[in-house]
Amino acid sequence: MRRHQTNFGSHSASASPGDFVDRSLGWRVITASTSDLLSGAPPRESVLEPAVDDHSPPLGGFAKRLADILIATVALVALAPLMLMIAGLVRLTMGGPVIFAHHRIGFNGSSFRCYKFRTMVNGAEERLSLCLAEDPELNRQWREGQKLGCDPRVTTLGALLRKASLDELPQLFNVLRGDMSCVGPRPIVATELERYGSGAQNYMQTRPGLTGLWQVSGRSNVSYPRRVALDCLYVRNWSMFLDLAILLRTIPALLKFDATA
DSSP letter string over 148-201? Predict the structure, then answer.
């Protein structure tokens, strides 16, 4: 595959490793070896490679897909009692639908419905619009990271589910359907794709994941530009060993009970 050579200009000396610097729609992008990714060593600067063509399979091909099916099947069987209990609690405390399905961008830019246990009140989008219009600080948080430190839409039960990432368990069905992978970039909405710049090519080269390099590298404490960088790093340095390492590191990451999720 021919590499697309682009000059993105020199980066600022004050920029920390992993940060993107916008250069008129160009991006400074970091790269690292697999051992660097797992050890936390400072990454090196590089340029992005273009995504594969429309006829190429998702990253990892058959081996990664087979691993996804096996892992998701075992996880669904093992976690079925917990998922049924959560579904009952959501229905009891919030009423309405138990599952929330939101359109996300997948392999080659295709759209799919990403499943989660519902964690927000009814009319959440209207409440968000009102809060962002009335509170400049919340508006700033949303523009910078598509997240809110104290989200007024999230219920008490929803906050607990989010902190433990239990709200994402229904995405195991997305993995079985082939919409997602067990490991990959964080699934994003269409409007976020613009913020990836040239990195969107890397994102669309694979299926988004239940967990990923961003989650085991700080999760919600990771800035949005750093999260984009980690997604690109994952694609550029993918291996089955890297997937296994991320899966193993996801367990202690979840046990930290992220207070900002």
Answer: -TT-TTB-HHHHHHHHTTGGGTTHHHHHHHTS-EEESSPPB-HHHHGGGGGGHH
Query: Assign residue 58 a region: left if phi > 0, alpha if psi is -120 to 50, beta otherwise?
Result: beta
* Predicted confidence (pLDDT) per residue in 182-238, tens digit: 999 999 999 888 888 888 999 999 999 999 998 888 766 778 888 899 999 999 999
DSSP 34: H
For residues 63 and 240, the answer to whether their CB atoms sit within 8 Å is yes
Three-state SS at 122: coil
Tell me if 234 sits within 8 A of 184, measured CB to CB.
yes
The C-alpha atoms of residue 154 and residue 260 are separated, in whole angstroms, by 12
Long-range contacts from 70-76, C-beta under 8 angstroms, 24+ separation: 71/175, 71/182, 71/247, 72/172, 72/173, 72/175, 72/176, 72/182, 73/176, 75/172, 76/172, 76/173, 76/176
Rounded to whole angstroms, how far apart are CA atoms 87 and 238? 35
Task: Supply the pTM of this predicted model.
Answer: 0.73
Residue 172 CA from chain centroid, whole number:
14
Distance CA(23)–CA(127), nearest Å, equals 35
Both tokens assigned to 112: 């799919």
Q: Which candidate, 49, 56, 67, places its Cα nearest to that of 232? A: 49
The structure tokens 């080659």 sit at: 108
Q: How far is the C-alpha of 94 from the C-alpha of 111, rounded, in Å? A: 28
